[in-house]
Amino acid sequence: MTQNDIVQKLWNLCDVLRDDGINYSDYVTELVLLLFVKMEYEQVQNNTGFEHKLPDGCRWPDLTSQSGLNLLTHYRQMLLDLSLSHDPMIAAIYADAQTRLKEPRHLETLVKALDGLDWFSAREDGLGDLYEGLLQKNANETKSGAGQYFTPRALIDAIIRCLQPQPGETIQDPAAGTAGFLIAADNYIKQHTDDLYALDDKARRFQRRKAYVGMELVPGTRRLALMNCLLHGIEGEGEGVVQLGNSLGNPGASLKPVNIMLSNPPFGTARGGGGPTRDDLTFHTSNKQLAFLQHIYRGLKPGGRAAVVLPDNVLFEAGVGTDVRRDLMDKCNLHTILRLPTGIFYAQGVKTNVLFFQKGSPANPRQDTGCTEHVWIYDLRSNMPSFGKRTPFGPVHLKPFEDAYGDDPNGRSARTDDGEEGRFRCFTRAQIAERGDALDISWLKDADSVDAASLPPPEVLAAEAMAELSEALRELDALMQALGAGDEAMEQKRLLVEVMGLEVTSGEVGGE
Question: Phi and psi of 157, rounded to 5°?
Fold first, then answer.
């Protein structure tokens, strides 16, 4: 049984939860409360020297040994006990955790189903990767929450390969979500250090406890992140790797500077129109991405590097947007921008980019003005397929960019400007200044785009649109008449006439 097979079986268990009145968005949260207990037990069985994180009475056999109402009663008490655990991380994971299951038979079905899965196959692939697969399945299937702006795994891995995190470096994601970036960075380091065995004891402890820090605003998402980290062998200190808090508030201001920043901040504006509550950000704005961008480049150590996913508006917004971009290019070497295809995020209309930059200049990590001399832009958006479930976005689409990016994590590899017909081009700081410091630069023409110069006059286009609309309305009226909804059709036309301020006879309104 493959990992995908197990993930699908786990996802199918959500049907049981739906029968108990649990809504779609709560499926995964409810399931993972149980799943984590099972996975923790499997890890102990499979790893010599791996100690139980969960106390007696709160382990998997304590659930499988009971049934009916006794099982449900014990499970509810178990969640309460775990939330009060002396282990701060376990207490954080199960903080305020409550099951919404009301039927004992539904809980028993879930326990038996989890107990009957082929966990040997799951262990072969890694329980953490299995859990990650379930989170991704949730993101792909749901229309809100994590699914809204879930960062594709292929993109995360490509970014990590470009930045090449190293043992001993500190890595932060101020909008951690389910900790995908942090776990991918840890996987990269483990792949290059024989699963950390090439490091000495002190370096291994650092990687497991101090190398990573994340911050997440939503308690339920943070719970998923903590579980995800723990199942991937990232323990952190105290309450775990991912802290609960707002990076654009005082908790974010207290985070220490790091070597690497990796993030896909949430899109949109601050609620209520107000800006972040931090007073240490130079440029105050209600645009959360502009605020996160400031946090990210200000939170880098000298010479530190970053990759951040941002929507198009950050590249062209005037006013504060221009100030932030100018400050970024002064304090950092913004060496590469990757224009991403549309449709790779669940919110199909969002156009995004990845900005790669290093704090300071290549010659002086502590330089804080004039650090950007030129910016390379890779256009992976123009003339690309329409990505979605039928055409998934994957590593093959990012490989040309990675090749063009080069082996140097700070963008200093030899590069070739492909010219106006190519995807990779270089723009000097002076050229960008001529554009008002806007970075939404494109040059490739989509094959299916329309040349504005060849369009008819606006009044002709408007007349054509009006004619098409009128014909569509006539066809809809005929359809409603055929369906026996003539009275409703007449009322809709009366409303339309009123809205447009027309004066017509009742016969004209009725279409007779």
Answer: -65, -40
Instruction: State the burial class of residue 411 (Cβ atoms within 10 Å of its Cβ: 0-12, 13-18, 19+).
Output: buried
pLDDT on residue 128 = 63
Q: How many domains does the chain have?
A: 3
d(CA 260, CA 307) in angstroms, rounded, equals: 8
CB 72 within 8 A of CB 107: yes
> For 476-510, b where at least 16 C-beta lie within 10 A, e where not — what string?
ebeebeeeeeeeebbeebeeeeeeeeeeeeeeeee
What is the C-alpha separation between 180 and 186, in angstroms, rounded? 10
Stated pTM of the model: 0.80
pLDDT for the residue numbered 499: 64
**What residues are paired with 213 via a beta bridge?**
172
- Do 232 and 276 belong together in one domain? yes
Contact at 8 Å (CB) between 175 and 215?
yes
Residue 267: name the closest of 315, 307, 207, 310 by CA: 310
Q: What are the structure tokens assigned to 182, written together?
A: 């942090």
Strands (E) across 187-263 are located at 212-216, 242-244, 258-263
Residue 257 contacts residue 296 (beta carbons within 8 Å)? no
**121 contact partners, CB below 8 Å, separation of at least 6:** 1, 2, 3, 6
CB 444 within 8 A of CB 384: no
Three-state DSSP class for residue 456: coil
C-alpha 405/C-alpha 409 separation (Å) is 8
Task: Kindly provide the b/e burial profile for residues 279-314, where b requires at least 16 CB atoms within 10 angstroms of the residue's own CB.
Answer: eebebebbbbbbbbbbbbbbbbbebbbbbbbbbbeb
Q: Same domain, yes or no, for 359 and 421?
A: yes
- In 96-255 the beta strands, taken as DSSP E runs, fall at 171-173, 212-216, 242-244
Both tokens of 154, joined, read 């292929």
Distance CA 131, CA 136 (A): 9
Strand ranges for 312-405 from DSSP E: 332-339, 352-359, 374-379
User: In terms of domains, do 430 and 479 share one?
Assistant: no
Phi, psi angle pair for 26, to nearest 5° = -95, 0
Q: Give the residues of the chain that fall short of pLDDT 70.
A: 1-3, 23-27, 47-50, 119-130, 137-150, 268-277, 346-349, 447-456, 460-461, 464, 498-512
8 A C-beta contact, residue 338 and residue 378: yes
Note whether 106 and 171 are same-domain residues: no
Is the Cβ–Cβ distance between 209 and 241 less than 8 Å?
A: no
DSSP 8-state symbol, 348: T
Per the structure, the complete domain to which residue 421 belongs is given by 150-434
